[in-house]
Amino acid sequence: MTGCPMTALVRVRWPILAAALVMAALSVSACTFSSVPDPSLSDKDAQLLASAPDFELDADYKRYKVDDPTGEPPGTIVVDTKARHLYFVEPDKKAIRYGVAVGSEAFGWTGTAVIGRMSEWPRWMPPAEMLERWPHLRPTAEAGGLPGGPGNPLGARAMYLYHDNVDTLYRIHGTNEPGKIGTGVSSGCIRMTNIDAIDLYNRVKVGTKVIVK
């Protein structure tokens, strides 16, 4: 990869060759991927996250700074539903990449929208189509929804997607099921781990462009 050092290896014994190849691979990776520190947490975040479900993500779905594959302007969110990745585009052709869960084929959504509203530890109201599929959720809806907290399906943060000033009913949000990151199981919404949802929330604003493809 351009700009990444590679070591020339000639006439070396296999153990030395193997070690050199590993080091070269790590050097290339270091040029492409770098870890992103966890965001600072409020006392409320720390308390609620301590009670939230936890899960060790596969390396492919952890939060990294990467070379931007989208070509979109800085500040744009791009969701690759097939790869289960969300990119927040940064300057200098870089992006923050997060693992996500996306809608299954029957309930998936693609298109272009903007963040029209943002909420911390939001209340969850089951949408009408979900109530049709799962009538057992009707008491939750009749009670005015589920308050924010560790067991709430929206998790720590929600970013509401609007198109032409109309709520699409799709969101980018946290989750109470982090083990499903990297899969296609949700009812169309884009789920992130709670810590990743907080990290993204801190980087965006109302009006941020979102492309889901």
UniProtKB/TrEMBL annotation:
Signal peptide start-end: 1-30
Domain annotation L,D-TPase catalytic: ranges: 75-213
Keywords noted in UniProt: Cell shape, Cell wall biogenesis/degradation, Glycosyltransferase, Hydrolase, Lipoprotein, Peptidoglycan synthesis, Signal, Transferase
Pathway: Cell wall biogenesis; peptidoglycan biosynthesis
Record-linked PROSITE patterns: LD_TPASE
Keyword Transferase among UniProt keywords: yes
Residues forming the catalytic site: H173 (proton donor/acceptor), C189 (nucleophile)
Keyword Hydrolase: yes
Pfam families linked: YkuD (PF03734)
One cellular-component annotation, GO: extracellular region
Superkingdom per UniProt: Bacteria
GO biological process per UniProt: cell wall organization; peptidoglycan-protein cross-linking; regulation of cell shape
One Gene Ontology MF term: glycosyltransferase activity
Family to which this protein belongs: Belongs to the YkuD family.
Protein name: Lipoprotein-anchoring transpeptidase ErfK/SrfK
Species this protein is from: Methylocapsa palsarum
Biological classification of the source: Bacteria, Pseudomonadati, Pseudomonadota, Alphaproteobacteria, Hyphomicrobiales
